[in-house]
């Protein structure tokens, strides 16, 4: 089908600055909706892609979710307007977790350390399984994630002490 073909071609991605919800002033001339081409007589309208939309007309081309409700960011590629989840599902890169080797879907949140990518649940010290919180110090040694304690113990066993700063 025509819609399916466009997914197979490579097009540049445009992450757009966002969707604005505007209240319609009663004394202004109604604007035309870019989705249905009818006049917008509602109390509110959306502005995206330098066009105006009814709240019901600005939808993801795949899942039909209302983009004004999902968030203030939308994606466009191959003349499609998409929500983040569908953009990543269709065009995102999947990979494997460096800790468990299982597939990481393109839309899933991840942690990164150099070239390695991890599921959020797998991002932990690989010796003691301590989970890291935002701001926690961790070390990457021989492609293993280590907490500070295990890293320093490993250095002591190797015969040199870490420098404390």
From TrEMBL:
Domain LIM zinc-binding: 31-93, 95-157
Gene3D superfamilies for this protein: Cysteine Rich Protein
Cellular component GO terms held in the UniProt record: nucleus
Signal peptide: 1-21
InterPro entries assigned to the protein according to its UniProt record, in alphabetical order: LMO_RBTN_TF (IPR050945), Znf_LIM (IPR001781)
Assigned keywords, A-Z: LIM domain, Metal-binding, Repeat, Signal, Zinc
PANTHER family: LD11652P (PTHR45787), LIM DOMAIN ONLY PROTEIN 3 (PTHR45787:SF7)
Protein's UniProt name: LIM domain only protein 3
Classification of source organism: Eukaryota, Metazoa, Chordata, Craniata, Vertebrata
